[in-house]
Write a structure and sequence with these properties.
Layout lengths: L8 H33 L4 H26 L1 H25 L16 H4 L8
Helix pairs in contact: 1-3, 2-3
Length: about 120
């Protein structure tokens, strides 16, 4: 697949190594987006944003800095994969156990005013 972009054997070797390491991370990344999409659709937007920031700035970038010292560019790619996996794990846990499902976006049709919901009868005009 990489040969479609470059015939250079070194580019193909490095690209193949990258794909082998990061491919599983993209499965985790897809899971994170699916679960956080459900949570965002329910009106909870802060946690998905924090999970994305955590995966990128707290896990991926520091790990890339650390692992690249020992494994070179492969360390950066492992950091990408581990950041995706950590974000996916947090997202799935929040989906399963978080309070997002209690959020109310749309009130039922009969609940039109605070007076009605408090049990005060509407006045006829």
């Amino acid at each position: 697949m990489i040969a479609l972009f470059s015939p250079d054997s070194e580019v193909i070797r490095i690209g193949s190594e990258y794909l082998k390491i990061v491919a599983l991370g993209y499965v985790a990344h897809t899971l994170m987006f699916a679960y956080m999409g459900v949570v965002r659709g329910a009106g909870e937007t802060v946690f998905p944003m924090l999970m994305s920031l955590l995966g990128m700035w707290v896990i991926r970038i520091p790990l890339a800095n650390l692992l690249s010292r020992y494994w070179g560019t492969a360390g950066i790619w492992w950091a990408i994969t581990l950041g995706f996996c950590a974000s996916a794990a947090g997202s799935i846990l929040y989906y399963l156990f978080g309070p997002w499902y209690k959020k109310v976006i749309v009130r039922p049709a009969g609940d039109v005013s605070p007076a009605v919901s408090a049990g005060i009868p509407a006045q006829d005009s």
